[in-house]
Amino acid sequence: MLEVSNLACSRGDHRLFSGLSFALHPGQIMQVQGANGSGKTSLLRTLCGFLMPDEGAIAWRGESIRDLDEEYYAEMLYLGHLNAIKDELSGLENLRISAGLSGIELDEKEALTALRRMGLRGRERLPTKVLSQGQRRRVALARLLVSDASLWILDEPLTALDVGAVELIQGLVAEHLARQGMVIFTTHQPLQVAGVEMRNLSLS
Amino acid sequence: MLGLLVLVIRRDLVLAMRRRADVLTTLIFFVMVVSLFPLGVGPEMSMLRKMAPGVLWVAALLSSMLSLGRLFSADYLDGTLEQMMLAPQSLSMLVLGKMAAHWMVSGLPLVLMAPVLGLQFDMSAQALGVLIIGLLLGTPVLSMIGAIGAALTLGLRGGGVLLSLLVLPLCIPVLIFGTGAVEAVSTGLSVTSHLSLLGAMLVFALVSTPWVTAQALRISME
């Protein structure tokens, strides 16, 4: 489980939030809410360890994420604003490489299955630069299908996605929570997961 | 660990092959700069022979600067670098893979091209041999030192100039011993001391620069 206690974060001289505490247990999902510039992305990036918090601590299964380092990264998956896919590579190559980086050996068949489930049948081998914005997001989101991480940190996962893809993501999140996974995300679009209580965290 | 190294090198080589223009720019720049000297200085053989090692080494140094800016910036801009930092594997290893790929794409072609260019300067076969060995030992060091600068200037506007200002002074030892080895051949002295110093620099860079670069990347990502 993820425990955040008394967290404070600032960008430059501007204090974004302080005294933030929450805990996320297996099977729980939390939506971070707030206006533009309220620090949602900064909070998620702090949880990833990119930003050093001014104060407070972040613990994963009782230990600080700074001390755990690689052990923590093996159990989490972050999907940011940027898709982290290479224009010159095909969806298939992109997915296999990003899985390889997170330590998962993915054979071609598994990667193809994941991409097809994301609705990219017939486009698996095209360079991603010829795909539309939404399709590229789908390539990036295919990582959710092949990852065995238990904590998902999703920053605006639904941007550029059509209604069908949003439903697909809702299904994936529900499956993940049923497997005792944890999700913390931000979005400006509604994301409904059936049968799970959505926790809210408001940054002001 | 080794699997990760191979994965990163393969990935970067595939990417380089798909944007071949970038690779060719470095090589063509090197060929052009080196070829301009005999044209500009004139066809006096003894002078050209004397200048050759310096010109080839300085040109190699400058052309390796050209491609450094792209070492991390493409991955930084499309978010791949973030994912690399979240990989549950050693970031230093990953950085070493990127350095190796950078050398194969921008350093190795220069080494292979150097003997042909050396002929323009009427270099002896023996001097050419030492030049190649020196470049083989020295250009990886340039890539590795350059990677530190590239990581530190990541995301800065006008980072290219700053990068050269940071990296070029650090490359001076490589330049001195690289050219020194070739000069030693022409004056009939032993080259082993120069080459072993270059080798020592290579080993030291292999051990220390990946870690330093990884720390610099963490700072740049904040």
Q: Number of helical segments of chain B?
A: 9
Low-confidence stretches of chain A: none
Following the backbone from N to C, one meets helices and strands of chain A in this order, namely EEEHEEHHEHHHEHEE
Secondary-structure element sequence of chain B? HHHHHHHHH
Strand content of chain B: under 5%
Please give a handful of descriptors for the protein shown:
heterodimer, A: 204 residues, alpha/beta, five-stranded parallel β-sheet, 9 strands, 33% helix, 26% strand, globular, B: 222 residues, mainly alpha, 0% strand
Describe the secondary-structure layout.
The complex is a heterodimer of chains A (204) and B (222).
Chain A: E1 2-11, E2 14-24, E3 29-33, H1 40-48, E4 55-60, E5 63-64, H2 65-68, H3 70-73, E6 76-79, H4 91-101, H5 108-117, H6 133-146, E7 151-155, H7 163-178, E8 182-186, E9 198-202
Chain B: H1 2-18, H2 20-41, H3 45-68, H4 70-77, H5 80-85, H6 91-120, H7 125-152, H8 159-186, H9 192-221
